[in-house]
Amino acid sequence: MARQARGTTIRKPVVPEIQAREWVIACHGYAEAEHEAIAPLRRQFADSWTGPGKGSMRHMEDQTAVALEAVRLARLMAPNLAFDDWAVLACPLLPGRTTFRDNLKRYAEDGAWAISPQVIPQCSLHSLPGQVSIILGAHGPNLGIGGWPGTEDQVWSAAWAIDLAVEPQGLWLIWTGLETDLHPGGTSSTRLRALAVALSRTPDSQDLDGKWRLAIGAPNPADSPWCPWKAGSLLQDQCSPWSATVGASSLSLRFVPPGQNT
Amino acid sequence: MIGDTEIWITGIGAVSPLGCGIEAISTSVLAGKTSIGPITHFDTSTHASKIASHIGLIPDSPWPVHPALPPTGKLIETCSALALDNAGWHPASGRLGVVLGVGPDWMLSWESTWGPVPTGTLYQPGSPFPSYTDLLASHWLGTMAPSIQLSSACASGNHALALAAAMLKGGAADAVLAGAAAVNTTPLTLAVFGNLRATSRRNDDPTRACRPFDRERDGFVMGDGGALFVLETATRARARGARPLAILAGWGMTSDAHHLVMPSTDQTHVVSAMRQALERAKVTPSEPGYINAHAPGTPAGDAMEAQAIRQVASDTGISAPVSSTKAATGHLLAAAASLELAIGIGCLERQAIPATLNLDTVDTSCEGIDHVHGESRSTPLRWILSNAFGFGGSNCSVVLRLPPKL
């Protein structure tokens, strides 16, 4: 292969027939918390959990705790919905900052024995969706997506692909983030936020009253970029369709308010 | 529902301490070699486990993406270039998507900068470095196809290929670069798994420390390496004259929803992932195949998987010889499934199954399956099933089929 990655004229692709996917937004929740509020939130979830891993839950990562709160609020909108075969896709941004910062310091001072065994199980990209799948009893795939700032829109590409790959009954999509990165030597506290959206299949007979719908399909170059925090308020306040691009990819999102056609 | 479009693997870029390229790695694995040894690149005096399959010098990529990548980034860069080169793919060939399985890469980036063994200058406070998918996409692709960076812990590599196949079948890309590669052997990662009591403490006998399915197994041994693949629809690959190395025929994915670390004692969802993959690939009981087990050499994980394999055979009538290659390569964590798929393709090419090294006495909890041990076995193979299970209760199985001869 010749070295021609940069500066090469890329042949205009044949416009593909992209398979569109459509869901109903079954419920959604948004949560914010100051860093100081995380410990009580974490204890609250661990104390109320009756399944295996209760001890492990006491070490859940900060963003996981806020995500569980967003999921809890979302479920209040659809208390009778079961999630047995649902998938969980979550994009925490740079998870594990405080834990990792503390453990780097401990390693330098005391060596390997001082390192918490919870660092990787709780603070990796897969940790948040894994914990949510446990809480929900969701046996579809659970995946951490993106993880770096600027990768939030990858959740949509993954949702579209997972839906094509295994057709789960529904998908939980979760975004979390820190207001400020917590690097060694920097600030030690920040504000956290989480958006959780549950997408269910749209059987013909389903009552769509009062439900937003969401479609992913072929791109529309006129769309604006996706932003999870904008979408959170959109679902609360807006009543006209809204569409967004999925990064620089060949996919586009379209949110459709209740009572309107895609 | 996605159609019956056949997905071909047309390029592989694999790197391991056992060698660079599928030829070298498969030869070593089938010959019963292991790359596990004492860790010498940092002080392990306070570590419970002091052994690994460490990659040392990472081969340079012929087409560098970035001058200051940390070790994992450099490995991804090299595997990507090798895979694209192997496939004969260049940007003008069409829209190339990326699906990359990752581990805790931002942690490793920090460790590169502030950790006990500084290895790179990639991450600067207040200026987060772009994700690896962004780097690859901007360098190789000028992309109009989706990029996805995902993690399901040790199942990440298999999930990456399954999503890549869906991306192709759904029409969002003409080819997808997919897989995972990682340099896991860092002080903090080793410490975490050591303190979790997941790694072997047989430090005085490194080459015999990793013992999947064996009665004396005491944990896994960490490894570095990985593999990236180029996937295309058969139609598109044929049109540009690419040759298939394997067919990605099936996948299955489930979650235990049980515990973040411990596998469930109920194998229902592991069995379901394996059955989904076999059914999607239309494997029949009469076709000869091979099961590359996840089996890292941990007491609970190996026993659970052996029981699941027995259950699948009982439910479907599909059984096949089983081995784990982790005693040869180490456990690559997020990249494990990718390297094992590359080894599986080597097995299909050579019609041979590698032995599980150090399997001297099959543990009673792991009996009832056809273990390949002692030496590799030459046998006709039409398919391989590769299992991968990760923290968070993620299960993902993939079936590869022997490609048509062109």
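qc> The helical segments of chain A are 38-48, 54-57, 62-75, 97-110, 119-123, 127-136, 154-166, 228-237.
qc> done
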